[in-house]
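Lab notebook page, bench 4
Experiment: in silico fold of construct C2
Operator: M.H.
Input chain length: 75 residues
Purpose: comparison with the prior construct
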Amino acid sequence: MNTDYIKVFGGNSAKSNRIEQILKDSGIEPIVKSESESARLAGFGTPLPHISEIYVHRDEEKKALELISNIAWEE
């Protein structure tokens, strides 16, 4: 992965989808990496299904982390 991008989240796909939308709504274009989706497309399984990582450009890291930290999770 390009070193201009920083991982700001790793977790289940439900949370990843929510974070992705919040970042996009704030003008940040995240890159979402899903090992399970990559494995599925290649015809393989994965021991950790539905786990995603979100990366943002280095210049947007601070704003992205602030947005993520302000999310109220209902669990």
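Observations: The chain has a mean pLDDT of 83. Residues 4 and 59 are 8 Å apart (CA to CA).
Next step: discuss at group meeting.
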